[in-house]
Each structure stands twice: as C-alpha cells, then as structure tokens.
C-alpha cells in the first residue's frame, strides 16, 4: 500500500476511534463534526482497494459502515420529525443539509434509467426508504411524475414519519405508498414493479446484501431493472460495496462512480429471462457513464 493510502487509512482509523467513543450518534455538534470530517476525508478520488487491506482495517471498515448507517438513520429521523411539524413538509426540504446531494443523485439515477428503459415505468419500488424518503420524493416530483412509488421499510416508525411528509401533498399522497415489511418476505408482489431501487444501507455487509439481491433475482419481473447504490475508493469506508459478481441472476448494464460530493456509486442491472413485451431495450453492458454525458445541470 502506497504512502498516500497509508496516511488516508490512518486518518480514517483515527476518526473511527473518535466516533466509536461517542455516547450517542444522534445529531449534535460533535457527531456532525466527526462525520463531516470522515466524509470529507473519503470523498477525494482514491486508488485504494479496500479488499486488500489488513484484517484489522477490514474490521474497522465494517464497524464504521454500521456506525455511519446508524448515524444516517438518526439524522433522517431528526429532520423528518422537524419537517413533519410543518403544514406542508415538502415545501421545506431544503432544511435537510444533504438535500442538494439527493437532487443530484436522483437526477443521476433517473438519467441512467432512461438509457436503459424506453418508457416511463408505471410502478417502481424503493427498498429501504427510511423516515426521510428523499429519493422517492425527488424522483416522483421532478422526473417520474406519473409513476406510483411503493416504499418498503422494515421499521413501522420510519414509514409513519415518511408518510406524514407526503400526506398533505395532493399529488404525492396519491402516488406514494408505504409498506411495513421485510423485503425478504415479499415474493410475487415484486413482479408488479418495472424498476426496483435498493437503498445503500439495506444489507450492511456483503452477506446481508447478497441475500437481498438473490431474493430480488428470484421474484422480480423478468427484464425488470434493479438500481443499486454502491461505493468506490475510500468511499467504501462509508457504504457497503456491490461487485458485479454479486448480481447473480442479473445482467449488469452500467456502473457509475461519481467524483464529486455525491457519495454513492450507481449500478443498474436487468433481471434475466428478458421479456420483450415489456418494451425494454436489450443492450450490451455500457461503458461507465460520465456527468458530462448526462448534463446534470438540468436538475431542479
């Protein structure tokens, strides 16, 4: 491992030690400062390969991903509660500190989706939508404006908070639905969706993530599209990684690794046993796409 990578790993491990000593991961001055420091450390493009790190660092990475997931959930709950106190919560989404990131990520995912789908999907699912389902809200508001969104989360309180955010909106309240269930218990219903989005924090380690992917492969509509979030370089210390080899039963169509403040990589794959009647194009796996090819500036 090069000197630069060693310094990077050392700094990440030092931040991990500080985070692991926190009494709570709920939003606070110290929590916000440490996680901001961690994200800023991991964002710059890096050639680091986390699979080649020593066992101790691998264990720290696994623990850090879980701490990040817990902190992210608490942050979303905190702001969902605040937003839910407004008469029109969706008019105040900009108070969430990472809202602009969700605008860019949602536009990125929509643009990639349009490259592999010739029509607007009628029904999509978002697995792991959480208490602040910003991806679904942004996609439904700006990009897929006639599509029904079925949001799945295992936590009833998260769905309760999320549904409160859209309940006063005359449009989204009719197109966004929330299901309190473990996605591994959903079977034939999955065939109703033309596109399924899988949140980055569904499955906090490789085994959990692959279990969910295998389940989706078994029950998804043939030819349906799966949109996943992964990570690349030092960002792998923040989120679990999806490798194309993990997508058994799917044809990987495109992989995109952002280099800006959008943390997550985006992977799109097609369920095998292609059904031509769906109107989806059969395409060769694409090269990694770039922001320039997408004209991200068109986002609202």
- How many strands, what sense, and barrel or not for the largest sheet? 7 strands, mixed
**Spatial order of the strands forming the largest sheet:** 3-2-1-4-5-7-6
Q: Determine Rg (CA atoms, Å).
A: 19 Å
Q: What overall geometry do the principal axes of the alpha carbons give?
A: globular
Task: Give a concise summary.
It comes from Nyssa sinensis. The chain is of the alpha/beta class.
What would your notes on this structure say?
This protein is of the alpha/beta class and 300 residues long. It has helices spanning 3-20, 29-42, 55-84, 99-114, 134-143, 156-166, 172-175, 206-219, 291-294, and strands spanning 123-127, 148-153, 176-180, 195-198, 225-230, 250-256, 265-271. The radius of gyration is 19 Å and the shape is globular. The termini are far apart. Residues 274-300 have low confidence and may be disordered.
Produce the secondary structure layout.
Blueprint: H1 3-20, H2 29-42, H3 55-84, H4 99-114, E1 123-127, H5 134-143, E2 148-153, H6 156-166, H7 172-175, E3 176-180, E4 195-198, H8 206-219, E5 225-230, E6 250-256, E7 265-271, H9 291-294
Parallel strand pairs: 1-2, 1-4, 2-3, 4-5
Antiparallel strand pairs: 5-7, 6-7
Helix pairs in contact: 1-2, 1-3, 3-6, 4-5
């Amino acid at each position: 491992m090069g000197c630069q990578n060693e310094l990077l790993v050392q700094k990440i491990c030092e931040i991990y030690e500080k985070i692991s000593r926190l009494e709570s991961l709920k939003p606070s001055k110290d929590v916000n400062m440490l996680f901001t420091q961690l994200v800023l450390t991991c964002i710059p493009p890096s050639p680091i390969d986390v699979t080649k790190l020593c066992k101790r660092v691998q264990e720290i990475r696994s623990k850090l991903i879980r701490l990040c997931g817990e902190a992210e959930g608490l942050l979303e709950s905190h702001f969902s509660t605040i937003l839910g106190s407004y008469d029109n919560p969706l008019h105040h989404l900009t108070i969430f500190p990472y809202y602009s990131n969700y605008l860019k990520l949602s536009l990125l995912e929509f643009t990639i989706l349009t490259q592999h789908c010739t029509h607007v999907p009628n029904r999509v699912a978002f697995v792991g939508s959480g208490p602040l389902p910003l991806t679904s809200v942004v996609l439904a508001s700006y990009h897929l404006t006639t599509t029904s969104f079925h949001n799945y989360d295992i936590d009833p309180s998260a769905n309760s908070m999320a549904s409160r955010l859209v309940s006063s909106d005359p449009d989204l309240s009719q197109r966004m639905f929330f299901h309190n269930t473990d996605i591994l218990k959903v079977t034939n219903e999955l065939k109703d969706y033309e596109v399924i989005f899988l949140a980055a924090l569904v499955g906090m380690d490789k085994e959990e993530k692959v279990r969910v992917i295998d389940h989706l492969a078994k029950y998804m509509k043939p030819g349906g599209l799966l949109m996943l979030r992964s990570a690349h370089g030092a960002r792998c210390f923040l989120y679990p990684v999806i490798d194309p080899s993990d997508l058994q039963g799917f044809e990987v169509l495109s992989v995109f690794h952002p280099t800006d403040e959008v943390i997550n990589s985006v992977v799109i794959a097609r369920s095998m046993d292609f059904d031509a009647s769906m109107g989806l194009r059969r395409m060769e796996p694409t090269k990694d796409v770039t922001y320039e090819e997408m004209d991200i500036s068109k986002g609202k």
